[in-house]
Amino acid sequence: MKRRPLPSKRSGDSKRSGELKSPRDAEHPAGTFAAGDPTATTGSPAVTPRVDAAPRVYSAPPMKWKRLLSVLVILHVVAVTLSLFAVVEPSQTHAELLSLVQPYLRATRFDIDDRPIYLTHDDRSDQPMRIQVSDSVSPGEDSWRTIEPPGTAGLAGSDRYHRWLATAVLLQDSEQPGLVAELLLGFVRSHPEARSVRIVLLPTDLTSIADETAESVYVARIARGGDRVSLVHVPPAAQSAVAVPGSGAVPDSGEER
Amino acid sequence: MIESWFVPEPVERMARVRGGLCVLAAAYLLSCWGDLDVWYGEAGIQSTSRVASFLAAAGLQSDARWYLSPLFLTDSIAAYRAVLAAGVLLAGLVLAGRGGRVGCLVLWGIVVSMTNRSLFLAGLAETLLSWGLFAAALAPPAACWYRSSGDVVRCWTAGLSRRLIAVQVSLLAVATTATMLAGSVWWNGLGSFALAAPVEDRTIDWTTGNLAEAWCHDLLTHAIVLSLPIGVVLAWRRPTATAGVAIVSAWCLVIALLGSHWLYAATFAVLAAAIPPCRALSSSDSGSSGRSGDGSSG
After folding, report:
1. Is some CB atom of chain B closer than 8 A to the CB atom of A15?
2. Of B138, B115, B21, B267, residue with least CA distance to A107
3. pTM of this structure
């Protein structure tokens, strides 16, 4: 089937626009009025606008096509609705229904995927997050160096940096330091001088006075040997001992990659 | 019920909405250009091998297998740049009414490919762009500055496209309001301040001005909560449609300014412009030059 765009100002369209002619257009031969080209009157000063113009209507398809399309549209809208309302806390039934339509939603990126459509609930995920590195294996508070997000604050590059760290913080909150290490290894490899890495949450004007200092949510030592890089998570209980060499603090998890 | 989806509507409305979406799609693709080598490429934080390793360690291969993207096949930054450049070029062509429905569909495919490749780096704006571009691809192609003069072109695919966007963005508005109210900050008046509070991640710092005053952030918070559903309801009724779209657009502007959700708010505003219903055809209009088809074939 021959496809055509809607008529444009190109004079060369006059032949194709003839395909669109309504019975009424027969009174205006193609080329003299550019029948079917609604922009022709503005495109050519020589053309007089038609006063008695009526809409050119492409009517609906046959009923069997309407039914099929309606079913598809309804299924699509139901799938999107399931995704939209699963953001806060879906029920078990809701989650099961959502899992049925997940292949469609994910492949097309129509899914909300738990992203905060509520904009903010003033929780940890809203706080600014930064990744810091230190050249020391037992760094003091002053030896951390912050790697700032790329680009201007609030724009796309900064947002991607935030979402990357938010994922890491979410995993750490779920007590999955091994997965946090997986997430950070690519970054650690690109900073060969670093010996320690940590993620901190910066306070905001809404955090309590007790949280006025940057909160460290994940700390790890970096061990390097040839091409191999390892991240050894330092649990909170041992973090105070990180600055004290020989304290005997033993990490509770480690990842060799 | 079935018939209502297929009522023909003027093409120019959807041409404008699609034009706005093309500009935003181009902005999104260009925004990915600058930090490509940070995330992708062999040494990138999200190189294909790293993603595979992470998903295997997390046991998420089955969940993630539907994030389809041809970009998972390569770590070549040049290939990513080529895809982004093609997307920006295509956005320009579709904006100008070229490329037909296929052009818009391919643009949607490029945006989805880039978004799926970025996995958890993607935000809400990408989902809205995907909704909008897919629906816009149903309507007949036309330049976004297309204006009918005298000879109005109506097409059922333009109507279907507009209604699909209108339903989706209205559902989003309902879900946004409902989920906002699940958090205490949208009740106690601190919501607007909480949006602006992470100043290190915001383009503009509003926390030192009047927003710190209780009356200001209280009023703004309640206005943000109330204006979205009110605006959408008004936009669905022809007599109040202009006021409704203006209210939703104002909501988007406030969200963009306070929360630095620039692309999300802009996409929301463009999609909301598709909500107002079009004037119905009179029987004489529809009878005078009616024909069967989808507006894309002769």
Report:
1. no
2. B115
3. 0.84
